[in-house]
Design a protein that fits this description.
This protein is α/β, with parallel strands linked by helices. The protein has one domain: Metallo-beta-lactamase, Chain A (4-Layer Sandwich), CATH 3.60.15.10. 19% of the residues lie in helices and 27% in strands. The chain contains 4 helices and 13 strands. It has a 7-stranded mixed beta sheet with strand order 1-2-3-4-5-6-7, with helices on one face. Strands 8-9-10-13 form a 4-stranded mixed beta sheet, with no helix packed on it. A two-stranded antiparallel sheet has the order 11-12. The longest helix has 14 residues. The chain starts with 9 loop residues before the first strand and ends with a helix.
Length: 233
């Protein structure tokens, strides 16, 4: 599911001046990280580190807004500490964690800032997607109404194990019966970046709506596909 060792950077999601990348293209989880250009610099979200990441961040800043410095690194899911500390230390910036997110700060070996509402002065507003103890899950989304870009780190994704039938975007297997309705109430995004897989480059709002609407009905087929994969894998 998850690889480590030498990474092989693959760039994805080149739209709105930003970029995403996967550090291990052949892993099942397809952990995606994102660089978001803003007037104050490049914001890095949930990064998995790899050779070439710093060059990509500089390129995103120069092509996006001209502000090529890294403004900060954001952790938007309690389980996505990933390589946030290493990237932040290298660029001499803080790791930003939502004020309401617990159990994260003590595990980050870098300076930490807490945020609520807007992420710095990036234009990306944060919102709570899920805050629950069963299953343990603290997830924040980001949305920039000026660019129509939304970032959802975990609740929906485009990799195979999220998808049932002909779905383009699927709800996480653990949330299929309780899909994240918070995604319905934060604007009409045109582009979506996800934490697992490539993003949705157009008509993101309708794609999200379709994923939420089909979540429960498609649960049996997704679980059957997953079980078959385990038995034959």
């Amino acid at each position: 599911m998850k690889r480590d060792g030498p990474a092989d950077l693959q760039v994805i999601d080149r739209f709105n001046g930003g970029a995403g990348w996967v550090a291990y293209p052949d892993e099942t989880m397809q952990r995606a990280s994102h660089a978001l250009p803003t007037p104050e610099g490049v914001w890095v979200v949930d990064p998995v580190d790899a050779d070439g990441v710093d060059d990509l961040l500089a390129e995103v800043g120069e092509e996006g807004t001209g502000a090529s410095d890294v403004a900060g690194v954001a952790v938007c899911l309690d389980r996505h500490k990933r390589d946030a500390a290493a990237v932040a230390r290298r660029h001499d910036v803080d790791v930003y964690v939502p004020t309401w997110m617990s159990g994260v700060v003590d595990e980050i070996d870098a300076p930490v800032s807490r945020f609520a509402g807007e992420l710095g002065e990036s234009g990306f507003e944060s919102f709570v997607i899920r805050e629950s103890s069963l299953p343990p899950w603290q997830e924040a989304g980001l949305y920039n109404p000026a660019t129509g870009t939304m970032v959802v780190p975990e609740s929906v994704g485009t990799v195979s194990y999220f998808l049932a039938g002909d779905e383009q975007l699927g709800v996480h297997p653990m949330l299929r019966l309780t899909p994240p309705d918070a995604l319905r109430s934060h604007g009409r995004p045109e582009q979506l970046r996800v934490g697992h897989g490539a993003g949705v480059q157009e008509n993101a709002a309708s794609t999200i709506e379709a994923a939420l609407n089909s979540s429960r009905a498609n649960t049996p087929s997704l679980y059957a596909k997953t079980l078959k994969g385990f038995l034959t894998g």
